[in-house]
Amino acid sequence: MPAEIILIGGAAILANYRFREMTYDIDAVISASSAMKEAINRVGDKLDLPNGWLNTEFKRTKSYSDKLSEVSVYYKTFSHILTVRTVAAEYLIAMKLMSGRQYKNDLSDVAGILWEHEKSGNPIARKAIDEAVAMLYKDRPKLPVASKKFIDDAFVNGDYDRVYQHIRKSEKQSKEILLDFVQDYPNTLKEEKIDKVLEQAKWKKQKNKGV
């Protein structure tokens, strides 16, 4: 039976851009019969991939929108059966901004997309991003404060390569902080407390530097 997959997040970026090297799993909107689930599992077994390598779990996150199918773009068809689509650049940026996790690739992905479009002579306008956010999340709260500040500063700066390098370094540091915290305080870190943990850790680091 015909099937369709819309690649989201890191998978969509890997399919369309060069700045990203890997993703830990593939988030997708899957429209297919139950046979697709069996096919996904068989591919995972054959290539020794972890369970959930292709999943729809992102639908539970705040970056998900039921409008994604409307803004997806054609990518490739396999064996005249499986159609793969991705998400257009401005909507990918909107999703990453809405997620805005300091310890993932969210904001560096935004900078990377802006950077590659600038290099290719096809820059993305701020207005297009604002319209994409409004389209996907018109019934939601506004963007997280950190994401709003980031995209404002990125357009003011204009040097997307430098912005990418800077925010990627910050994301790696945030991830290391959280790994250390989990090691020191197992089973205590909750999603809603992550930003506070990072803020306190970075403040303490700056204070120690000052001393």
Strand order of the largest sheet: 3-2-1-5-4
H/E element sequence? EHEHEHEEHHHHHH
Sum up the overall morphology in one term.
Answer: globular
Helical percent range? 40-55%
End-to-end Cα distance: 66 Å
Strand content: 5-15%
Q: Give Rg in angstroms.
A: 19 Å
Average of pLDDT: 88
Low-pLDDT runs:
none
Q: Which class best fits the helix and strand makeup?
A: alpha/beta
Instruction: Sketch the major β-sheet.
Output: 5 strands, mixed
Count of spatially separate domains: 2
Q: Strand tally, please?
A: 5
Please work out how many helical segments DSSP would assign.
9
| Oligomer kind | single chain
Describe this structure as you would to a colleague.
By secondary structure, the chain is an alpha/beta fold. It has 2 domains: 3-87, no CATH class; 91-210, no CATH class. It is 55% helix and 13% strand. It contains 9 helices and 5 strands, in the order E-H-E-H-E-H-E-E-H-H-H-H-H-H. It has helices at 9-16, 35-46, 68-71, 89-99, 106-119, 126-137, 145-157, 160-184, 194-210; strands spanning 3-8, 26-31, 54-55, 72-78, 82-87. It has a 5-stranded mixed sheet. Strand 4 (72-78) and strand 5 (82-87) form a beta hairpin. Helix 4 (89-99) runs antiparallel to helix 5 and helix 4 (89-99) crosses helix 6 (126-137). The longest helix is centred in the C-terminal third of the chain and has 25 residues, at 160-184. It starts with a strand and ends with a helix.
